[in-house]
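fyi for ur records
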Amino acid sequence: MTGSECWLGIDLGGTYIKWVQLGADGDTLASGRRPTPMTGQADVTEALADVVLARLSAGVHLAGVGIAVPGHLSEDRDSITLLPNVPGEWPGFPLADTIVARTGFDPVLLNDARAFALAEIEFGSAHGSDDVVFATIGTGVGGALAARGTVVTTRRDGFGEVGHTTVVIDGDLCGCGSLGCVEAYAGGAAVLSRAKARGVALELGVVTLAALGRLAESDSVAADVLDEAYDAFAIGIATSCALTGARLVVVGGAVAHELPGYLNRSRERLAERLGLLGPVEVRLAQLGPRAGALGAAVAARITARHRPLSSEPAAHTTLEHLV
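which gave:
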């Protein structure tokens, strides 16, 4: 192998698997993406392993690998417990051990919203900040929290789920199985589905959200759908700030970039609660679609969990130990 040590971060998404090779000085040395297989967990895991093996074949000296997943992990951060937007039989699937067997690297696994938060603290809009609420708006709404500059998690890997706070009692069904969640109104898939159900002529797909925003300027139905989405998101953000005392909100994801109403409505709602919350700044995330992969690489760099195949058992490190 050639070159100095570096870390590989992989972001498993519902459409693409994105990866970043991070150097010791924090520079991105290489990056790329490939389509996410739609044929089950075996093919998805093989695609993840192929990203690792391709970097090794290129002569890269990998010191560790991190993988961000759009779901929840077991307490030992070894297996998947929930992965709703990637086809496959995921509950209980031993992702870490499968990657070890295929590549010789014991990966750091973490939730993609937590990876997003790690990246934005290290390189982006939250750099140098202490108490932060993070939210990502794409197909759904992800979330994470930082306290004193540290991304916080719990043993059950569910801390900071802004998208699954309730904003409408007995409201619309969310993908998580609950009713009235932020995501059921403000997630990209939900916004388009609700618009279509009300007769707005748009094809499903995140790319059409910008078109929906333009249409809302002249179509009152489209405007109502977006208004409800903005309100649901803003209420979830304000509630999270009330619970945590955070003075900064960082919002990322493709939908947030396409529809500035999410951030603007959040600023309005937070201003209404100035007496309780004090001034809270709302910033757009800086790192774009590579944030998840960057955060996964940061997680790998923190733990440096390179373990070649051997008879020794893997020592899975939890996210609590990463930050």
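DSSP finds eleven helices and twelve strands in the chain. thats all i got for now
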